[in-house]
Amino acid sequence: MQGRPFPGLELAGLVIMVALAVWMFVRAKRRSAPFLSALCGSFNLLTNLIITAFIVAHLVAVCRNALAGRGLGGAEAFVYDFHFYSLILVGAVILVPALVGLRHSWRLALGNRASWNAVVRSNVVLLAVNLPLAPLQGFAVGFSAFIAVNLVLLLAGRKVMTS
Fold this sequence. Notes:
The chain is mostly helical. It has helices at 9-30, 35-67, 82-103, 105-109, 113-130, 138-156. The chain has one domain (9-160): I/LWEQ domain (Up-down Bundle).
């Protein structure tokens, strides 16, 4: 069998991510969290899970090609150059704020103001990194759309966040 070894893996992963976000929303509401904070935390979880999954896949693919001796963009041999370095660096610069967002999702869902502050900052960094990549990479458009919706929800939920 040629092609991808696990067809449908992306869809299964997305279904699991959505299920986790719904589970978080329900769990936060059972703990008497305000609707808007539960929604903010759940959507933040979904956004950052998607970004993390794709960026980890990006980093694994770049490193796998390098370790196998294959070059980037169809080149015959691997060469350590600025292109390789920039692919690793961009992946890391996107991964770190996404992990920060993941770390604060639960407390955000419960209405924690410090987590709200951290998540807003991490989303601003994610948007600042992804928007310039949009003309170069289609995934950056999708990431930016999710991040923008997340920021709108966060700004709408600011008043329900407590200390």
